[in-house]
Amino acid sequence: MPALEESASGFPQGGPFDPYDSEAYLRWRDAKLAARPGRAEDLLVEIGAPGRPSETEQRAIRDRCRRANMAIYACRDFSGRLAPADLKAGLEELGAAFGLHRLDRNLCADEDGITALEVREGGAAGEYIPYSNRPLSWHTDGYYNSADEQVRAVILHCGRPAASGGANGLMDPEIAYIRLRDENPEFITALMHPAAMTIPPNMTGGEEIRPARVGPVFSVDPGSGALHMRYSARKVNVVWRGDPATKAAVALLVGLMGREDPDILHWRLEAGQGYIGNNVLHNRSGFEDGAAGGRLIYRARYFDRMDGTEPGND
C-alpha cells in the first residue's frame, strides 16, 4: 500500500483511510474481512528460537501480521534457564528481522530498552498497573507518547507464566476502525481529530515527568500508509474531546470491547511464547503468582512498524 498524502484537514488524501473515499474503503474492507483470522490459534507460528528466525518462519509471521497485525510465536527449543541478557539479545534479533530497530526507552524500561514486566513492590515502577497483578484495561502501547515517538510495533515474550490468569484479549485496530466506520463515518472524522484524546501530564511529587499529550485516536503512518491507533479505555487520566460524535464513538468502542466478540481473540502466553505485531489493542486479566516464581514478560516497544506487513505486500 503506497504512502498517502494528507489534506489540510489532517485526514489522508485518498485511500481506504480517507473518511471521504468510500470506494477505496469498501475494496479494502472486503479484503480485510475475508482474510482476518477466526481463532487465536490461526496466529500461531513455531520458531526455532527468539533470535534469527528462518526465512520460512519470517514469511509465516508476516502473513499473520498482514492479516491481523499480529502473530503469536512459540519457540521449539526455548529454555527457561536462558540468561536474561541472552534472551533479550535474541528478542532484539527477532525484531531486527522485521525492520524493528528503534526501541522506545520508556520511563521504566531497563537500561537496554527492553522492559522486564513483573510484580514490583514499591519504587517508581510499582505505581503502575503493568507491574502489578491487577487487570489491565484495553489499550495500545505508548498511547501517552508524543506524536513523533508513537509506538508502532511491540514484542511481548513470556519468560515465566503466572500460576493462574494473566491471559490477553487481542483485537486488530483495523477491525475496530471498520466497526466504527460502518456504524457511522462521522466517528472516524471525530477520532482523527488532532485533539480527540488528551492524556494529562504525569506528575510525581509535584514534578512534571511527562507533559500532556494531545492527539488523534486514528492516524495514518506517512511512510507506509498503514493505519495507526492510539487508545486507552481507562476512565481516569484520559480526557476526550467533548463533541457528540467523539462521545458516541468512544461509547461504541467501550461497548465493542466489553463483550464477547468473534474478532476479539484470547491467548495466555506460556514460557517461550510471545506476541509480535503492529501495536494492536490488548488487555490483560488479573493473575496470581505461585511459589515457583512470578509471571515475567519481556516487552520491547518500537517506533518502527514491522516491514512487509501492509496489506497487498505479499
Topology:
Layout lengths: L4 E2 L5 E2 L8 H14 L8 E4 L7 H14 L1 E6 L8 H13 L18 E3 L18 E4 L13 E8 L3 E2 L2 E4 L1 H11 L1 H7 L5 E3 L2 E3 L2 E4 L2 E3 L2 E3 L6 E3 L9 E2 L3 H14 L7 E3 L5 E5 L3 E4 L2 E2 L7 E7 L12
Parallel strand pairs: 3-4
Antiparallel strand pairs: 1-2, 4-18, 5-21, 6-19, 7-18, 7-21, 8-20, 9-17, 9-19, 10-13, 10-16, 11-12, 14-15
Helix pairs in contact: 4-5, 5-6
Summarize the structure.
The chain is an alpha+beta fold and 314 residues long. It has helices spanning 22-35, 55-68, 84-96, 173-183, 185-191, 244-257; strands at 5-6, 12-13, 44-47, 70-75, 115-117, 136-139, 153-160, 164-165, 168-171, 197-199, 202-204, 207-210, 213-215, 218-220, 227-229, 239-240, 265-267, 273-277, 281-284, 287-288, 296-302.
Overall description:
The protein has 314 residues and is an alpha+beta fold. The protein is built from six helices and 21 strands. It is 23% helix and 25% strand. A hairpin with a 6-residue loop joins strand 14 (218-220) and strand 15. It is globular and about 55 Å long. The chain starts with a strand and ends in a 12-residue tail after the last strand.
